[in-house]
Design a protein that fits this description.
The protein is α/β, with parallel strands linked by helices. It has a domain of about 80 residues: 2-Layer Sandwich (Histidine-containing Protein, Chain: A). The protein contains 10 helices and 11 strands. A hairpin with a 5-residue loop joins strand 2 and strand 3. The chain starts with a helix and ends with a helix.
Amino acid sequence: MRAMDVMTTEVITINEDATVQAAAKLLVEHGISAVPVVDNENRVIGMVSEGDLLHRAETGTERRRSWWLDMVTSTDQLAAEYIRSHSGRVRDVMTPGVISVTEQTAIAEIAILLETHRIKRVPVLRDGKLVGIVSRANLVQALAMKINELPSGTEADDRVIRDKLLAELKTQKWAEVSPANVTAKDGVVHLWSSYLSERERHALVLLAQSTPGVRRVEDHHRPVPTYMVR
């Protein structure tokens, strides 16, 4: 299985000229911990994460050192830290030099990248442009499906099934399902995440079952905790 089989294609992004407040708002509103920074040609030039926004002057959390640590810290580093905590633009707080993969990268390789570089997600590029993102959650789902490291020989069919299912979901107003929560392996569709109503869950399963090529549907949905729907 490769990146194209598990990646999220509807990726939230931000421009380097956007404000830091806009970046923080995106993270909060979409419940994500990082957002890719792209240029006007949709090329990834950096990443802004929660960690990049921890030390900010607005919240009084900028880095503070004892006087003797300031004495041994280079003026260049002190200036860089000041810019990151006081600048209002994404370009000054983002982490540049983002590690990326292609659609053909095996998920085993992606797992090694995430672990080695201690990151939570990796952008997927096609001809240098952003087409998706693979997170740790995507790989955990793959593990739950008990996917073997070696290709099964039906990857092409599985991609067709997943693409058809996602295309049909987009036409249904009731189907607010993230692409990251729909995977296919050997003709078996796996549906993840939580649902808000039994009817929506049932409709989603029926839609998946009616997709050409699907042999079986595995429903991994969990009821939303009671405190979330009150």
